Amino acid sequence: MNLKKTIHKLHLWLGLSSGLVVFIVAVTGCIYAFQAEIKDLTYSYLFVEPQQSSVLPPSQISEIAQEAFPEGHLHAVLYPAKERSVQAIFFSYGEGNDHYKIAYINPYTGKLIKLNDEYADFFRIVLDGHFYLWLPPEIGQPVVASFTLVFLFMVISGLVLWWPKKKKNLKQSLKIKWDGRWRRRNYDLHQVLGFYVMVFALVFAVTGLVWGFTWFRDALYFTASGGDQFVEYYNPASDSTQTYQGEIPVLDAVWLKMNEEYPNADWIEVHPPEYEGSAIAANANPDASTYWKSDYRYFDQNTLEELPVEHFYNRLEEANAAQKLMRMNYDIHVGAIAGLPGKVLAFLLSAIIASLPVTGFLIWWGRKNKSKKKAVKLEREEKVLSQV
Q: Is 304 within 8 Å of 248 (Cβ atoms)?
């Protein structure tokens, strides 16, 4: 058996085994592509009427939110554009207290607009399918990651199988024969469309594997940085020998500092200390349509001194090329890196990728039935000959 036949068999059986997972991941990715735009059109609690008065500081927003959800762990307070509600984000995972809720609050009046259970939100359910196949994360995540690795092989092996033996057949391999029989159309839909989405499918797979396997992420970062080790996220510690002496709550002081330094930011987010003695994390994003341009800052909760970090969640100007690549990973994966056209492209590509397991299955099924019919025909012919 030659190499191409071996690759064909691997492509076939790995495709049949991974097809359902690839279909689910691609369809959920397709749906999720415009989640932000759809939310803006359908979730009225995201918006408020802008007023001339100043907005409430995070200490007061926190109090209002905690009254609405006293058992919740406040993770952050996010201030988006003036016409949007402030988000008090509650998040905790593990130790029997899993929750992810957001209190949407009018920043001018302090009115609680909605306390939303994000785990029950439609787009969160879609995202859970994309990441975990709706299985527990500790099971679903490695399953999706493993099949994404299989999909990476499928894309590469598909290129090998598509590659025409002769140059004169190249033109034929680049177009779909729409006037052919259904088997030929289906074959072309699988092979030709698969070729056209190949590069983008590789990008989707690689950016997905960054989240899927730490070894893959570390290897990619090592390669992109020229030999540096990936540094996991951590929150730096505050100086425990000092005591905060400010006249206003320290969270408000950090928020005011961020507002002063980023007057044109699309959003500013401040995080109360995650544990006793940790720093106050804050970030400012100049472009709410993406994440990678954000500046991430860390302040000593006792002295307000800015603390440096070694991981890529730092100031954008301090990030090296490999760290910027890590920052861009999500925006590349969803197409947001190229704005709305990029999201449209990601939507269309995800739809085509979702079709590949279907057309591939139909190719296999058609050949299987054809082989059965041929076998039945030969059996009948043999019976006829035996009676002669």
A: no
Q: Which of 97-104's residues contact partners 24+ apart within 8 Å by CB, and which partners?
A: 97/71, 97/73, 99/72, 99/73, 100/124, 101/69, 101/72, 103/64, 103/65, 103/68, 103/69, 104/45, 104/46
Task: Please answer whether residues 126 and 173 qualify as being in contact, where contact means their C-beta atoms are separated by less than 8 angstroms.
Answer: no
Please give the angle made by the CA atoms of 373, 374 and 375, to the nearest 5 degrees: 90
Task: Please answer whether residues 104 and 45 qualify as being in contact, where contact means their C-beta atoms are separated by less than 8 angstroms.
Answer: yes
Contacts of 31 by beta carbon, 8 Å cutoff, 6+ apart = 123, 126
- DSSP secondary structure of 294-343: -EEEEE-TTT--B---SSSSS-GGG--HHHHHHHHHHHHHHTGGGHHHHH
Give the whole-angstrom CA distance, residue 110 versus residue 71: 20
Residue 86 token pair: 């402030």
How many other C-beta atoms are found inside a 10 Å radius of the C-beta of residue 7? Answer: 16
Domain ranges in the chain are: 45-124
Question: Which pTM value belongs to this model?
Answer: 0.90
CATH topology of domain 45-124: Nuclear Transport Factor 2; Chain: A, (3.10.450)
pLDDT in tens, 64-87: 999 999 999 999 999 999 999 999
